[in-house]
Predict the 3D structure of the following.
Amino acid sequence: AGVLLVQVRVAQVSEKHLLVLAEDQTQARRLEAIRRDFVVNVSHELKTPVGAISLLAETIEDAADDPTAVRRFAGRMQSEATRLSALVHEIIELSRLQVAGALGQPAIVHVDDVVAEAVDRARTTADAKKVRLDIGGQQGTQVFGNRDLLVTAVRNLLDNAVAYSGEASHVGVGVREHEGLVEIAVVDNGIGISSAEQERVFERFYRVDPARARATGGTGLGLSIVKHVAADHGGDVTVWSQPGRGSTFTLRLPRAEVGDAGGPAASVEP
Ligand code: ADP
């Protein structure tokens, strides 16, 4: 169902014959709308930290003879700059994922490696909050795809789990195989997400609580990056959550078959 947008071109090829070309424009229009929204959102999101930085610079100028104030405002300027840089980094990452062939040269990837590296990278923020990070149920599973992107995806889930959990809480990441799929589940006991919000958290720039997300350095792009990485690998990402009890984000990816080692019609890796 739905409305088809069709572009029709007509050419007279002979006295009696018309050539009619009908091209479905629905997908093209939809992509165009997504791109337009993205540009509007990006400009809006970039203006916030840039505005804050310039305001802070002015404030510092005015407070030049108060060293304590200067230090405080300089610190805030620094954290806005860090946020800006994270935002730019994620925007670039997301744009890269939106073009075809984002996987580069897909290869066999060991899920245990991906999880270990993501945990390693999330460790600093977790330690700062005294959050314990545990890995469970590794199975030597392999998928076919891009290792760096998969590390980014799992890391985004871990960073969120830590950011939206209390001090000294516990975050777990587990791997299992289920019906030919690899499931990487990131479990936290944090603030949780209401069912109405669960549908929206994967949208670009969507944040349940923008003020809180800003305080935690969130950009609102983390989960849309995860969603893109999952889709590019032929998988998906889902969330289970209860407000006040915690959340579980599950990344599901097709398991690699041996023949995947060199791509389609491939040589088999030992
Ligand atoms: P952000 O950079 O703001 O974390 P994300 O796209 O990663 O952006 O997440 C979008 C929003 O989803 C977050 O702002 C937060 O409100 C919510 N969210 C994501 N992960 C969790 C989690 N583990 N627990 C609670 N809320 C979460």
